[in-house]
Design brief:
The complex is a heterodimer of chains A (734) and B (316). Chain A has 16 helices and 32 strands. Chain A is of the alpha+beta class and 734 residues long. Among the domains of chain A are: 169 residues, Aldehyde Oxidoreductase, domain 4 (2-Layer Sandwich), CATH 3.30.365.10; 217 residues, Aldehyde Oxidoreductase, domain 4. Chain B is an alpha+beta fold and 316 residues long. In chain B, a hairpin with a 5-residue loop joins β10 and β11. The longest helix of chain B has 18 residues. Chains A and B meet through α3 and β30 of A and α11 of B.
Chain lengths: 734, 316
């Protein structure tokens, strides 16, 4: 089905199931421990265990590997290294090789897998491999590499390196009020609960993989390319995923080395990456240095907006696209953005929840707060004043929907924003108290997505698609979609996901999953409705699907009747025309945060948070809220504690476990609220939905930073905002 | 993890004797630190002697009016004990500021004193570390060291001791009781229990091979207001950047030990004479001769300000 004109009224608009707060249908499986995650499948017979050895250096080469002791260790079945693995290709989506050697491209790059009868034997044997390295000098410091940074490659999700409109330089120079400030964000880790894990089993030349992966079709392709086998020979299953956040968009060393280990040992092999590998072996969100220049008139109109961002990656890698939102978020006739990419020899950078906007908004929305302060304007009012309903770089191109001002104003009212006082003036016992606000912005992306639906003689509709549920609630919204379309209650729908033998979906990434995958199910259900109508002798245009029946005029037939003579199967994909080019499709929100800062120790504690979101039709308010509060929590982490600490001598992230890489705990997040504004966007799909899972993180960090400024009067431009950056500005103690 | 053998000892003296005579043997109690270190091959014992079930899990009054805390008393039980909460509130507060509920349920009094540093370089066996691998060097010096020590450190090691409980024990003048491999007992004042790194940071205490901690005793209660203020980047489940364990009396006198700043709970008794003059004077004396790095210099200011907050809180 092609979606190329704005949606009219369709069965989804009944909102009998869609839009209703619906607990996740896979919840009982998860709370009872019976949802099989990647490492827990028992389909593979008699598995052996693989343990991966990572490089001890960041850059250089292996000069020798002595496998003798490891091979002779108890239980060892096979050891695979680059030397004996055979020829390997490289996937489209990974920058460094997933099995390194002799060249070493980053710290903890996999250099061997030991396969043994037990996990403990494999781990102990891996420690017996003796490796000699020749260490090369590497580049590990973004600030030092910044001046040598060049234009990143364009295309894919990167967009152009530079953009502009009007005369930025002239307008900025002439602006009566100017801001020119530089902000930094550190490298971030996904730090999801479930480590990357895979079970691999060969049956002749066919490979079965049970893994934790967000994008099945991409990853099947990369697996086939890496191993040099036809993609039809690879079956990948990933029905449950314990968090991904972009870290599982692609295959990683666990999948490739499990497959190689299984081939070498002639056994099914289980591999889970140990926790320290999640920080240096797998990708991360790259650090940025961002310079923002704003020029405004004295009455608060932005006339010049400039945003430059520097990030680094391994040779052949890509940039953190931190300037993207600045092209679109605020009005202003004169503008420029520029991204530059330095070569670094740290582990590879890649997508993490809201790539681009997450760190970009952390900087931009402090800058907006700073400018409002310079102008003597309330930061909510300043943002409202500079709203735009068109793409500012292409003013002929309107937003499909844009309720940013309504988000800000609703939030201000609900949060008690009017009580905000001047910086450093509110005290509650030992706490300095402040409030901050930031806009939330994330683009909406639609991706082609297919599904198959089956109707059986019991009246059960089964949805099959290779779509994944990374904890987001996908099972539930796909079931809601099929139930709405077929006129069934939720318990008559079964959803099966994450299997490469199912039709290819959009996958889970870039907050495109919810709208795209449900639209794919919609398309398949339209076909199934036609097949049912035909079978039952209805005119499909007149047939009404409701209450488990198909009706037209006075005739009413149970839906199950249509499958009496055999299962009915329909398959289709939703594909997109050029509506996303005609209309700028984005999601909006406003974050409000209140913090306390201990006047003695400068410890920062969030007191309450509110997000108001306008993000198209909310398919399931329960799972959407869960997505947003999770994103707000992640944003709080980025604001206050998350930082991969770089050892600039040895080139690795030092705090490579969950003790050293701190993420918020419950005590850090005392109170969160989420409000969704009513919205349905007919330009995005027949679902009229957009993404929301990444919107929730965009701007949170800046709202926290702005609240800290309001509490203390101190402006910190380098994340994370830790107490050591505030101590010098704390009040004198008695 | 290397393969190891395991046995349960029948008595404290037997446990000490076995470990004393068995090359590569270690005691295991709660295992909350040792097992992690074994998985990473930072500790590689070949034999584990289980000292649970030896009756060392009781808290008793001493004839001197203090408390004798068995080495195997779990952190949760110690923190919840009515006598501890009433007379040694500092200890209770320090305990609940540490780790998580699950860890405190397993972790023991002696094990808490003996836990190893959380220096990230100690935990990464690819990196040089004089504590883990004597003579290999210290990667933390010149590396990422925001959380590490500012005083009592050496050119060989700048690691901190991570315990909250030990800070309270130090302020309370606890005494560590042991039984040695030959069956004799001794008592080691807490001030002498954790040793400074010097050029042997792998040596962390005066215990001889096989010497088993059987109890920690506390002297008579000293009264006063007990405050444990642990400063960290997140609200819970993190090691201290700086912690202050203070016992403050109405007349302005008091005692204080600091955590998060040194290779052992850091207390300078002579500096406590400055207590009536306030935090700045005390901190200056306690931290005299500190050698912070560029990244952790803030701990000096933070220690002073945290103590000032504690004093202000005690004065109400």
């Amino acid at each position: 089905m092609k979606f190329d004109t704005p949606a009219g009224t369709n069965p989804i608009d009944q909102l009998k199931v869609i839009g209703k707060p619906t607990p996740r249908i896979d919840g009982p499986l998860k709370t009872t421990g019976s949802a099989p995650y990647a490492y827990e499948h028992h389909d593979a017979p008699d598995p052996a265990y693989g343990f991966i050895l990572g490089s001890a250096i960041a850059k250089g080469r292996l000069t020798g590997m002595d496998l003798r002791d490891a091979s002779a260790a108890p239980g060892v079945l096979a050891i695979v290294t680059a030397e004996n693995a055979g020829k390997l290709g490289k996937g489209n989506f990974n920058t460094a090789k997933l099995l390194g050697g002799p060249e070493i491209e980053h710290y903890h790059q996999a250099v061997a897998i030991v396969v043994a009868e037990t996990f403990e034997q494999a781990r102990a044997a891996a420690a017996l491999i003796r490796v000699d390295y020749a260490r090369d000098k590497g580049r590990y410091d973004l600030a030092a590499a910044k001046d040598g940074a060049g234009k990143p490659p364009e295309g894919g999700f990167n967009g152009p390196a530079d953009s502009g409109h009007g005369d930025f330089a002239g307008a900025f120079a002439a602006a009566p009020v100017q801001l020119d400030a530089t902000y930094t964000t550190p490298d971030h880790a996904h730090a999801m609960m479930e480590p990357h894990a895979t079970i691999a089993a060969w049956d002749g030349d066919r490979l079965d993989l049970w893994t934790a992966n967000q994008m099945i079709a991409w990853s099947v392709g990369d697996m086939a390319k890496t191993l040099g086998i036809p993609r039809e020979k690879v079956r990948m299953r990933s029905p449950f995923i314990g968090g991904g956040f972009g870290g599982k968009l692609f295959i990683r060393a666990d999948a490739v080395l499990a497959a190689l280990g299984a081939r070498a040992a002639n056994r099914a092999v289980k591999v889970a990456l140990p926790r320290p590998f999640m920080f240096n072996n797998t990708p991360h969100r790259p650090a940025t240095i961002q310079r923002i220049r704003l020029g405004a008139t004295r009455d608060g109109k932005l006339v010049a907006i400039g945003h430059e961002s520097w990030s680094g990656d391994l040779p052949g890698g890509g940039p953190e696209t931190a300037t993207g939102q600045t092209k679109l978020l605020y009005a202003g006739a004169n503008r420029m953005t520029a991204m530059r990419l330095a070569v670094l020899d740290l582990p590879e950078g890649n997508a993490m929840r809201a790539p681009g906007e997450a760190p970009g908004m952390m900087a931009l929305e402090i800058a907006i707060d700073e400018m409002a302060e310079k102008l003597g304007l309330d930061p909510v009012a300043f943002r409202v004043l500079n709203d735009t309903q068109v793409d500012p770089e292409n003013p002929g191109r309107p937003y499909s929907q844009r309720q940013l001002n309504q988000c800000l104003q609703t939030g201000a009212e609900k949060f008690g924003w009017a009580r905000r006082a001047k910086p450093g003036s509110v005290r509650d016992g030992r706490w300095l108290v402040g409030m901050g606000v930031a806009a939330a912005f994330r683009n909406n992306i639609n991706m082609k997505s297919a599904a198959r639906v089956r109707l059986d003689a019991r009246g059960i509709v089964t949805v099959e698609t290779d779509m994944t549920d990374i904890g987001t609630g996908t099972y539930t919204i796909l079931a809601q979609t099929a139930a709405e379309m077929m006129g069934l209650p939720l318990d008559k729908v079964v959803v099966r996901l994450g299997d490469s033998s199912f039709p290819v979906s959009a996958g889970s990434g870039g907050q495109w999953g919810a709208n795209s995958a449900t639209a794919g199910v919609y398309a398949a259900c339209v076909k199934l409705r036609e097949a049912v109508a035909q079978k039952l002798g209805f005119n499909s245009a007149d047939a009404v699907f409701a209450g488990g029946k198909v009706k037209s005029g006075k005739r009413s037939v149970p839906l199950a009747e249509a499958a009496k003579g055999g299962e009915l199967v329909a398959e289709d994909a939703m594909e997109y025309g050029d509506l996303a080019r005609k209309y700028q499709q984005s999601t909006f929100g406003a974050h409000f945060v209140e913090v306390g800062v201990d006047a003695a120790t400068a410890e920062i504690r969030i007191r309450r948070m509110l997000a108001v979101c306008a993000a198209g039709r909310i398919l399931n308010p329960v799972s959407a809220r869960s997505q947003v509060i999770g994103a707000m929590t992640m944003g709080a982490g980025a604001a206050l504690m998350e930082e991969l600490a770089v050892d600039k001598r040895f080139g690795f992230f030092v705090n490579h476990d969950l003790a050293g890489y701190e993420v918020p705990v419950h005590a850090d997040i005392p109170h969160q609220d989420v409000i969704f504004l009513a919205e349905a966007d007919p330009t995005t799909s027949p679902m009229k939905a957009k993404g929301v899972g990444e919107l929730g993180i965009c701007g949170v960090g800046a709202a926290v930073a702005n609240a800290i400024h309001n509490a203390t009067g101190m402006r910190v431009r380098d994340y994370p905002i830790t107490l050591d950056k505030l101590l010098a500005g704390m009040p004198e103690l008695a | 993890m290397k393969a190891f053998s395991y046995q349960r000892a029948g008595s404290p003296a037997e446990a000490a004797a076995i470990v004393g005579r068995t090359q590569g043997a270690r005691f295991i109690a709660g295992g909350t630190n040792l097992l992690d270190l074994m998985k990473l091959q930072i500790e590689t014992p070949t034999h584990l002697v289980d000292v649970n079930h030896l009756g060392l899990d009781r808290i008793e009054a001493t004839t001197e009016g203090g408390l004798r805390i068995g080495a195997l008393v779990r952190n949760t039980d110690l923190a919840a004990d009515g006598r501890v909460r009433k007379d040694y509130a500092l200890l209770s507060r320090a305990l609940v500021a540490g780790a998580s509920g699950q860890l405190r349920n397993k972790a023991t009094t002696a094990g808490n004193l003996l836990q190893r540093t959380r220096c990230p370089y100690f935990y990464d066996t690819n990196q040089p570390c004089n504590k883990r691998s004597p003579g290999s060097g210290c990667a933390a010096i010149g590396g990422v060291n925001r959380g590490l020590g500012v005083i009592g450190t050496s050119e060989a090691c700048i690691a901190t001791h991570p315990s909250d409980m030990a800070v309270a024990m130090r302020a309370l003048d606890a005494v560590v009781e042991t039984v040695r491999a030959d069956g004799t007992a001794r008592a080691i004042p807490i001030a002498e229990f954790h040793t400074l790194p010097g050029d042997t940071p792998n040596v962390e205490n005066p215990l001889a091979p096989g010497e088993l901690i059987t109890a920690v005793t506390l002297p008579r209660p000293v009264g006063g207001t007990h405050i444990y203020h642990k400063v960290r980047d997140r609200a819970s489940y993190a090691f201290a950047l700086v912690s202050v364990g203070a016992i403050l009396q109405k007349d302005g006198t008091g005692r204080v030990a600091f955590g998060g700043v040194a290779p052992r709970p850091w207390r300078v008794e002579a500096a406590e004479a400055e207590m009536p003059r306030g935090a700045r004077a005390v901190a200056a004396a306690v931290l005299a001769g500190a050698t912070p790095t560029e990244q952790n210099r803030f701990k000096l200011v933070l220690a002073e300000r945290t103590l000032a907050a504690a004093i202000a809180e005690a004065r109400g």
